[in-house]
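the two lines:
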Amino acid sequence: MYLGIDVGGTHTDAVALSEAGVAAQVKVKTDRNDLLASVNQALVSILETVPAKAVRQLNLSTTLSTNAIVQGTTEDVGMLVVPGPGIGAHEFMLCRDYHVLNGAIDHRGTETGFLDEGQARAAIDSCRAGGVRVFGCVGKFSTRNPLHENTLGQLLGQDADYVTLGHELGGRLNFPRRLATAYFNCAVWRVFNAFADAVEQSLASLGLGHVRVNTLKADGGTFPLAQARRMPVQSIFSGPAASVMGIIALCDITRDSVILDIGGTTTDIAVFVDGQPLVENDGIHIGSHPTLVRALKVRSIGIGGDSALSVLGETVRVGPNRLGPSLADSVPQGAALPVGARSTLIDALNCTGACSHGNVTASRQGLAEFARQHSIQPEVLAEQAVLAATQAIYTATQELLAEINDRPVYTIHELLEGRRVAPGRVYLMGGPAKAMQSAVRQRFELFTVVPEHFGVANAIGAALTRNTASLELFADTEKGVMFIPALRHRENVPRSYGLKEAERDAMNHMLAHLSEMGVFADRDNAQVTHATSFNMVDEGRTTGRNIRVKCQIKPGVAFALAGQGRA
Amino acid sequence: MHEAKTSLGIILFPAFDWSISPTHPEREERLLYTQDQLKEEGLFDIEGVDEHKPGVATREDVERAHFCFPEVEAVATRSHLVAAGGTITAADLVMSGRHKRAFALVRPPGHHAMKVVHGSRGFCNINTEAVMIEHLREKHGVKKIAVVDTDCHHGDGTQDIYWHDPDVLFISLHQDGRTLYPGSGFPAECGGPKALGRTVNIPLPPGTGDEGYLMVMERIVLPILKDFAPEIVVNSAGQDNHFTDPITNMNLTAQGYARMTELLKPDIAVLEGGYAIQGALPYVNLGIALSLAGLDYSGVREPAFDAVKHRQRADLAEYIERLCDTIPNVYFHPPKEPADGFVVPQDSGEWFVRHKNIYYDTDDITEAQTEELFLCGSCRGLLKVVSRTTKNPACLGIEVPLGACDACRSLGYSIFEEAQVKEGYRFAQFINRRDKEYSRHGF
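prediction for all of em together
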């Protein structure tokens, strides 16, 4: 039995399922000040129908780290920064204890300026004097050569509660993002670990001590809780990914498709290429800071079932404001409409007959009143509201597709022969999915699918999401070095080392790392996503090869709930 | 996070699958470290700085700028069409208002490609700036354009294309032709009879550093630009003036490049040469990009920089100062007659005739060319070029310019028709910019 819990902003959804189907599902209100209580409540309800012994795995998607950052309950971090030449590091001042140190590494990983250890010691002392216990050490081009970061790590020694070294966050180039990611990883480290401890205690007391616990990431995968304790920043914004993975579990997606998760406040739009969810080139933003945290490419727009209707001149609009729940949800049966009640998209859908959700009479009365104020026929208003919402979703989808198709490429082959993404189907999920289906079909002029269980697809996605991993390998045969930053693995390679060997090494190291963490990863799901080798030439002579390989375990689900998707 | 003061669109197209030959300076690796540097700096995360995908130039885009013999497809590979397409994208970004400025970081370069193209010279087949300029005129109605070529080599291709064009001001700063390829670019080369003073050459002595370049910028380039008042300023931003460049002898630094860009304020910058791909390009490109975006570039410093070693020699300042005193005269007081060529009376009227011998070093082609400009009283005049090379027999190019008068237009048609009837030419190309007609003959 697989358990999935998605702790969302409003609701906490939980399911228990096996290959036979969904065995139990619950929805409880999220207590924003005590997420653990929400998790426990969900677990207890599930265990009413499912025996604890039957549960093998729990996948948890939580807004804990996000909340900590938004509410400012993170802890002070000491940042030791080695920027070298280029854009000044003071531009990226993230916190009070932010120390810029002398030293430089260039794009090939050559040390072009020594790290000033005296300066580093003084910075560390100053942080400690201020009570700082967690540190981020980040250097420019540390993913090419981690020398300075490693030295800083050694200088910090055992006398720090936790240290994030920039290159551990992965091999991608982007110094400001590496800085921000290391900072946030340190900032939420303590609060996440406290939560993880509490969850493990709860599980033990509920007889679930034997369960393997994974945490969801934003890239449509999970990682073991032990790993999440070291890289809590990766657990941020996993909510949209849970929904997208839910669709994969419920429907057999094989071609280019659009996924619409229509919620209460927002609609999340995702795109699948050849049945695979697209991952963002860069990482997500935390606040105003771009990071290296990989995420599925999801666009959110402010249109959902509870989005308020408004009329501007002749135009009917939906959202982006949410002024409260729909009349259908908020007005008790038989009660009079409150003064100043605002109709929402759900109310409009109730009026057009697309659904009959909650108090339909209240929806009709409210909309009629609103229409009268603007001298429009209620039927026309309802219809136009649904059209406007669909149009906004359609426009945002087209923009997302244009962005995907216009993303920069760097070879002539890709530029001239690269394939364009052209979705042939739309999958809908979330509360108003069924009600919006026909309007979406008419606007997109595409085949639409609403799977069964569309209301808890997020928790199903959470339950079934597989482990993912990705890493970058960088080799320079002139220097005779191969380096995998995420694993902190550096070894000497012969001059004959080539792309084939690099691809093999990248894959083997990734799979070995997963098995060390106790994760079974199917080799078939591992793929090389980028592999280039450049001849380096000096004075007309080839001096070596500059090799870059990226590989990943594809996002996917443990199994699909066969036959549960339907048109 | 910080924000660009002037929004900047960057077209970064390193063409990772194209080279002239595996160890040629113009090879796959050339922009690899530049891309690494720009990515590591997080340049594209800065508000107002965006990366864009290049377009692909069409045959027509190229024919607006060139006579290609035997045809466009034969002299331009897909890589050249993408580089030219990248500059067109840059122009569109600026003209549409999407960005205030644009930087086309594309390869291969283009500024040695002349009006007539039989192959590659100085690593250039298609003049990317010229393709862009003609696009600016054709699609965006821009009339006056200035090109400031800061590549270390004389931009002889761009000079040749705009030799007779009074609406395109071409200024080239380069290492003195007596010491470097292509061996041209002296102040006496100042444009054809209809465009005297609209070509300004500034040959600088080997060893010129930041100080000298900035002096030339302030005392020659900026005053001329102010007077000419172009609608668009294009910078052919070659990066081979750098002190580490393997094939030139100058002393410019990344800081110097950035400061020069800050003074020039180009609307569009296009990468040209520059082959110190590890020690210079990543830093120079970063400096130029930051400067274009109005951001602080003071931290950009190449690892090999040595303030003492890379200072300009004291004796050069005096020489450069003399240049600054005299060269502005080329623009402000041009000679009455062109230095080369002569006027030939024919039945149709007077023609200005030049003979040129051109060597294509990259492709080893020798060309003998006769260029004739009809000295029209009411327009820029019909252009006729007859070219013979070691590769192609006699070829004819005829161009009816933008804004041509009726007489030049019909004269162009009659010469082209006559050429087809008499069959004296293996290939003939007719370009009518006025009516956007492009035809070829002889395939």
